[in-house]
Structures are given as C-alpha cells and as structure tokens.
Amino acid sequence: MLSINLRAQERMIGGVVTTFDSIPLIGASVIAQNTKQEVLTDSLGNFSIRCKNDDKLKVSAHGFYNQNVKLTDKIKFAAINLKLRPGEKEREFAIGYGHVADTDRLNAITSINKNDFDFSHYQNIYELIKARCPGVYVIDNLRIIIRGMNSINLDNSALVLVDGIPYKAPDLKVIQPSQVKSIDFIKDAGAAIYGARGANGVILIESKR
C-alpha cells in the first residue's frame, strides 16, 4: 500500500522549451529534482517527464541561461523560454550543440546586455540604440529602422516589444535605460516568426522587472 501511495504522488507532465518566445530548442536538458529523471527535448522542443506534484524542473542548454521551474498541481503543461547568453561564443555553442536547427535565425540576432555595458550612461533608449547598435537607425525618435529605408512611401519601422508587449517607438521615451536588462535585435529569417508585423525586423526589450 505504501508503494502504491508513493507512485500516486508522481505524474507525467509535458512541456516545450523555446528561445525568443517561439524558436524551439532541440536537445535541451530537463531534470526533475525529486525523481532525478532527465529527458531531452525533441526536434520541436517538446518533452515529457515523470515528476512529483510539487517537483522542480531544471532546464538547461549550452549557450543559454539555465532556468528553474517550480511545479504545482495546477500546472498541466510547462512552457519554458530560455534566454540566449549574449556574445558570439554563446551563439556558436547554441548552434554547435544543435539546440537551434535554423542557423539563419540565430545568426540574424544581435544582443546587448546590461552585463556587457552600463546602460545608465545613456539619457534615453534612443541614445542607447544609436550608440550600441550599428546599422540600426533612429529617426526623430519616431521610428526605428533595422534594415535601412527601402521605400519612401511605406513604413519600414521595426516591431518593438517591451516585455512581450508591442510599443510604438515614440512611447519608448518613458523607459529609462537603467530599467533595461537586455535588448535583442532580430532581422532577416529570424523575424519571420513574428509574421507580417516583423517584416522590417523586431526589437525585443526586456526590463529588469
């Protein structure tokens, strides 16, 4: 009876591991702290693991920051988004270990992080972007252009997301550089995952909150 009771406390839980919110990570490690079981994500970033109701999952992949996820009875599916470590070496790790299948997407990503630069030295987001992001143009603090001005009549502005929420470029004036944790610039094939709105590139701003 004791054996049956212990097994009843365990369950199978499924999930998915991604980066940049929607790019699946292949071969990422998922470990259940209590059951000690380890599984790897498949080609779509999916996994299924046996764990306890109050277990904790440790998710890791070379080139990415680790993440711990505490489970509860209410969690039936775990969607985990790992953040890419900044720097060319970390991108090489991510590609070399096969975590990102579409290398064009990863190579099209440029990242700046508060650990690499002191963001507080800049008066506003526009100044920070112009100083640290070659090839990215800020026009009158009204538009941010990643790919260059390809048309006179059409809007070539990049899609801006702050903590996952769409922002218009003029609204960025309310965000102080000291409040920013990282900024990622996605262009070319990498921006295609955001559909038509990402056709001119995507800027992902993550705040410290």
Structural write-up:
The chain has 209 residues and is an alpha+beta fold. The chain has two domains: 81 residues, Sandwich (Immunoglobulin-like); 100 residues, Beta Complex (Ferric Hydroxamate Uptake Protein, Chain A, domain 1), CATH 2.170.130. Strands 9-14-15-12-13 form a five-stranded mixed sheet. The radius of gyration is 20 Å and the shape is elongated.
Keywords:
209 residues, alpha+beta, Immunoglobulin-like, Ferric Hydroxamate Uptake Protein, Chain A, domain 1, five-stranded mixed beta sheet, four-stranded mixed beta sheet, 4 helices, 15 strands, 34% strand, elongated
Number of strands: 15
- In what order do the strands lie side by side in the largest sheet? 9-14-15-12-13
The secondary-structure element order is HEEEEEEEEHHEHEEEEEE
Uncertain residue ranges: none
By CATH reckoning, the class of the largest domain would read: Mainly Beta
Strand content: 25-35%
Please, what is the average pLDDT?
A: 84
Helical stretch count?
A: 4
Helix content: 10-25%
Structural class: alpha+beta
Per the CATH scheme, the topology name of the largest domain is Ferric Hydroxamate Uptake Protein, Chain A, domain 1
Q: Could you give a short description of this structure?
A:
The protein has helices spanning 2-8, 88-96, 103-107, 125-132, and strands spanning 10-19, 23-24, 29-32, 38-40, 46-52, 56-60, 67-70, 77-82, 109-113, 137-139, 143-145, 159-162, 165-167, 180-186, 202-207. The protein is an alpha+beta fold and 209 residues long.
Lay out the secondary structure.
Blueprint (H helix, E strand, L loop, with lengths): L1 H7 L1 E10 L3 E2 L4 E4 L5 E3 L5 E7 L3 E5 L6 E4 L6 E6 L5 H9 L6 H5 L1 E5 L11 H8 L4 E3 L3 E3 L13 E4 L2 E3 L12 E7 L15 E6 L2
Parallel strand pairs: 1-8, 12-15
Antiparallel strand pairs: 1-2, 1-5, 3-4, 3-6, 6-7, 9-14, 10-11, 12-13, 14-15
